[in-house]
């Protein structure tokens, strides 16, 4: 895992926080919740590849 993934996740977090505040300020509390859920989904999709690599490493270490 390299630092670029962490920076991407931090960037998504900052953007989601800003969008959440803007949407919430204009009275769209339900839409603000959707923005935060979308941010979580984006980060999970970014991590799927790393989780797969971790699984393969565990398999090779333990010989499963």
Secondary-structure map with pairings?
Blueprint: H1 3-25, H2 29-62
Helix pairs in contact: 1-2
Report on the architecture of this protein.
With 64 residues, the chain is mainly alpha-helical. The protein has helices at residues 3-25, 29-62. The radius of gyration is 16 Å and the shape is elongated. The model has no long low-confidence stretch (mean pLDDT 90).
> Quick check: average pLDDT?
90
The total count of strands amounts to: 0
Instruction: Profile the largest sheet.
Output: none
Oligomer: single chain
The SS-based structural class is mainly alpha
Low-confidence stretches: none
Count of individual helical segments: 2
Distance from N terminus to C terminus (CA atoms, Å) equals 23 Å
Radius of gyration: 16 Å
Q: How are helices and strands ordered from N to C?
A: HH
Helix content range: over 70%
Instruction: Bin the strand percentage.
Output: under 5%
Identify the overall geometry: elongated
């Amino acid at each position: 895992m390299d630092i670029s993934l962490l920076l991407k996740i931090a960037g998504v977090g900052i953007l989601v926080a800003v969008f959440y505040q803007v949407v919430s300020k204009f009275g769209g509390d339900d839409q603000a919740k959707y923005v935060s859920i979308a941010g979580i989904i984006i980060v999970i999709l970014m991590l799927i590849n790393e989780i797969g690599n971790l699984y393969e490493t565990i398999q090779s270490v333990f010989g499963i």
